[in-house]
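Example 4.3 (complexes with small molecules)
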Amino acid sequence: MNAPATAPIPVFLDCDTGVDDSLALAYLVSSPAVRLVGIGTVSGNTSSEQAARNSLDLLALLDAPEVPVAIGARDHLRKTYNGGVPHIHGTNGVGDVDLPTSPHEPVAGSAARLLIDLSHAYAGDLHIVAIGPLTNLALALREDPTLPSRVSAVTIMGGAALAPGNLSPVAEANIGNDPEAAAAVVEADWDLTIVPLDVTMENVLHEADRLRLLESDVPGARALGEILDLYFDFYLPTYGTRSSALHDPLAAAIAAGGVIPTLAPRVPVVVDTTDGPGRGQTVADLRGQSLGAVDHPGVRTRVVLGTDRPLGPHLLDVVTAPARRNAPVEV
Ligand code: BDR
Ligand code: CA
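Answer. The structure with calcium ion bound is encoded below.
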């Protein structure tokens, strides 16, 4: 893999680690285009505490134990944590695989605090990649409304523009688990890229890909192959073969520039925070888009509806590369 022409992007990852979150974390740590400078965790696939443990253990396996991990919100803004989705991500979030326990512990302070601190340390350059419910970002915006002025971009995995939801008929899980937080993130004044189910469900890993991970010389890649086993079972009825949607790693790869959006109009997006059947829906104004992307003037939110290449092969190349992990960034 060639070295990137530009300096690595400092990235704060907010996640509910999580099988596909694990793929995203490994991608960001392994991509030469990125330096992962901090991780915040939130409840979703598993609790925020367990997500932090999983993140620390993965970082150790990936030779990047120095990345600070902060435990974020256990409960969502209007709802207490419901116990996660053990039938999808396992009781421990990482497919019931026992990862070697890292000796590292979470840093003191909340995920929101770590994000705010990093926004000062990397002012103007920090890119947020959020791949769980958006509670921590909403709390950070509450604590420091000037946060967006120091953040270069935000990329989230979440929502469903024209595709059906996966938590409800219209709500995707990350948005539907905390619609109030998602609304705050969508309403904030920053460059926001939404990577919805419309594109993440189109990017898939297959059993042959999982075998390539299991046969890799890179310990972290082999762990990913094991972690994916249970997730492949969950997606069997959806795809007809044991395979996995690549929700979170697609957002990571788009943030890193490894996958380029080819259809991503900047359009108004509203999150439904009512208590009706539309709760958690991302309502994107895609009227008049049939001839290609038409950006609405002044809108800073883009919704990814098409990309330049399938993520799977690129993801495997990046996470199995024996390159040095987590390239340093110049400040
Ligand atoms: C999203 O929900 C979580 O379960 C996955 O990790 C992903 O972030 C997909 O809807
Ligand atoms: Ca996730």
